[in-house]
Amino acid sequence: MEKGSITVDGISLTVSGLGAQPRDWFEVSLIPTTRELTTLGSAPVGTRVNLEVDVLAKYVERLLPAREQPTPEARRQPRTPLSKAGALGYAPTLRTSGPRDGSQYGSQ
Fold first, then answer.
1. Whole-number Å distance between alpha carbons of 86 and 95
2. Where is the segment annotated Disordered (predicted)?
């Protein structure tokens, strides 16, 4: 799988996994140092975060066919400065899980 990067609350991270549908979810791996020295380590599940993607990802998103049409209610919503600039325009929430192998995070 080719990996990309995403910035979550100003912290640049490498994408380590994607959902079956690209808009379903993405996964990043946090090393212990990043967890300890940033706000991500103490953010509870459900915390709203700011996402920024690289310019190439924005162009790819525009080239892909639309999978879902906005509802009439969503069309009436005012556009955010981010969406006007071509960014994501929504506030995703943080969901966390432990390492895939079931081990605990830790540093030595």
1. 25
2. 64-108
Cβ-count burial of 63 within 10 angstroms (0-12 exposed, 13-18 middle, 19+ buried)? Answer: exposed
> What percent of the residues of the chain are helix, what percent strand, and what percent coil, each to the nearest 5?
25, 20, 55
Number of Cβ within a 10 Å radius of residue 81: 8
Which one, of 99, 58, 102, lies nearest residue 82 by Cα? 58
**Residue 74: what residue type?**
A
How do residues 12-47 score in pLDDT, each as one tens digit? Answer: 888 888 777 756 778 888 889 988 899 888 888 888
Residue type, 59: Y
Residue whose structure tokens are 């995070």: 105
Cβ contacts of residue 34 below 8 Å, gap of 6+? Answer: 11, 13, 40, 41
Q: Residue 63: phi, psi to the nearest 5?
A: -80, -25
Quickly state the pLDDT bin for 56 (edges 50, 70, 90): low
